[in-house]
Amino acid sequence: MANPFVHVELNTTDIAAAKTFYGALFGWTLQDVPMGGQRSYTMIGVGEGTGGGMQTHPVPGAPSGWLAYVNVDDIHAATEKARKLGAKVMREPMEVMGAGWLSIIIDPTGATLGLWKGSGQ
């Protein structure tokens, strides 16, 4: 597959409850990674398959929800192509702690999707 799903992220209103629930439900390995200041990001290790992460929702007042990320070869070109095809760009391309680049789009039907370009690609 040219553009596989590579990361799934939970943005939650209650990170402690989410970690307790999903750790117990699936036995996932959860590892907190400092992001600077008081923020942290919890990496989700699932063994085989696509892993992910969870964090306190970055948008105040927004409901909890899962966000899938798709791998792209060029984050800027893919984001611009999505825009030209009718997507709203919710987050312009941004670097993520030296690990790669992400952007977030809302497709013409209203569904949210993350685009990801790893730094080692």
In summary, what is this structure?
This protein has 121 residues and is α+β, with helices and mostly antiparallel strands. It has helices at residues 15-26, 75-84; strands spanning 5-12, 29-34, 40-45, 52-56, 65-71, 88-96, 100-106, 112-118. The chain has an eight-stranded mixed β-sheet, with helices on one face.
Keywords:
single chain; 121 residues; alpha+beta; eight-stranded mixed sheet; 2 helices; 8 strands; 18% helix
Kindly describe this structure.
The protein is of the alpha+beta class. The protein has 2 helices and 8 strands. Strands 2-3-4-1-5-8-7-6 form an 8-stranded mixed β-sheet, with helices on one face. Strand 7 (100-106) and strand 8 form a beta hairpin. The radius of gyration is 15 Å and the shape is globular. It starts with a strand and ends with a strand.
